[in-house]
Structure formats: C-alpha cells, structure tokens
Amino acid sequence: MDKNEYKKIIKYKSPKENKLKNIIISFFVGGLCGVIGQLLTDVFNKCLHFSINDSYMLTMVSFVLIGSILTGLGFFDKVVSFSKCGLIVPTTGFAHAMTSAAMDTRNEGLVKGIGSGIFKLTGSIILYGIVAAFFISLIKVIVG
Amino acid sequence: MIYVNAFIFCGLVCLIGQIILEETKLTPGHLNTILVVIGCIFSGCGLYDKFILCAGAGATVPITNFGNLLVNGALQGYYSEGFIGLLKGLLVNASAGLSATIIISFIVALIFKSKN
User: Fold this and answer.
1) Backbone φ/ψ region at B56: left (φ over 0), alpha (ψ -120 to 50), beta
2) Were both Cys, which of A45, A110, B92, B115 would link to A55 (CB 3.0–4.6 Å)?
C-alpha cells in the first residue's frame, strides 16, 4: 500500500462529525451566553434603572465574576471541555485566562508571582487591543 | 426579537472562533487576541454600534466588544479634546471591564488554591 492510499484511508476513517459537533455546541452555548447577557442587561436597565451603557458594563462585570469564581472553584476547565469556544469567546474566557494565570503563579509570592504572572495569558489581548485601537482611531481621525 | 438577535450574533462569533480553533493550530490566547483586533476594525468602520443596536448584549458579551470600547473611548476623547484626547480617552470606556477583571482575579487567586 503506498502513502497516498494510506492517507486516503486515514482521512476516511478518522472521525469527522466530532468537529461539526464541537462547532454546533459552541454556537448554542455562545448563543445562550448572549441571551443570558441580554436578560441581565434588561434587569439592570428596566428593573434597577441604570443607563443602557451602564447596564452593558454591569453585564460584562457579572460575566467576569461568574468566570473568575468558576475558575477558582476548578469547574471552568470541565465546562470548557464540553462547551468549547462557547465560553472562551465571551468575557468569561478573558476572566478565566487572567484568574488561572494568577492562581498558577500564586505560590511564587505576591510580587514576583501574582504581580508579574497575572498578565501572562491576557497580556497579549490587552497589548494588541490597545495598539490596534490607537492606530485604527488615529487612521480614522486623519482620513475621516 | 432582540433576544433572537443576541442568540444568533453571540453564537456566530463563538462558531467562527471554534472553526478557527479546529482548522488551525492557534491557541485560545491567539484567538482572543485576533477577535479583539477584529472588534477594533469593525468599531473603526462604525459597524459595531449597529451590531449593538441590533443584537444588544449579544454584541457586548463577546471579547470583540473590548476592542470596540477601546476605539470608542479614543474617538470620543478626540472629539472632545483633540489629539491629546486620543491618548486620554483610549482606556476610559474599557476601564470598568478591565479593572473589574483585574480586581476580581486577584481576590479569587488569593482565596482559592490551584489544584495542580
């Protein structure tokens, strides 16, 4: 049997529906996050009378709180292994990355451990977010 | 109706993220960085505010909103104070989310111990 034939058989035999299943699960879990976020926003806006921008901000903070506490209790990795991107892309994933980095480096002390390690995973998000935002708004200001 | 839009929009962002993770060798850290930059670009084009109008929290829950908040803050700063406002305003809108994440993460890391 030559190599190409072997590759064909491997391609045919390896599970394909797994990828599709992951994609569908992340779509539904992500959508559910959006609906819960909208529900929380409506509660903050209509029941507690915050302005709409503050409601969006408080929803974000609630998601951060949920993500951090789940990470602290050790549940987050188990949930993510099922829900995949559905919980990584919402703000919970950002909170998880920061909290887990802080927890991993905590044994090395407050300054050298948590202090320098807390941005280990989220540092790239903050760095490229700020740099990209600065240049995009500069371009928009100059062009527009 | 806004609930349906929120479901579809937030789901689609997660679906795109999952496809990127499945088809390439990028890690979730790469993915979130890419999504924030994409959010910045959409916000710079003026599209992100329309997404928020249509999908509500469906557009503010994904991490792309972090890029949108940064660009919005910088532009608002520019319109009120000129070029120096670009730097002064960059973090204003995103401050709440970022500060909350840092403070909550720190407290959680102090309270809970990593199991590994």
Assistant:
1) left
2) A45
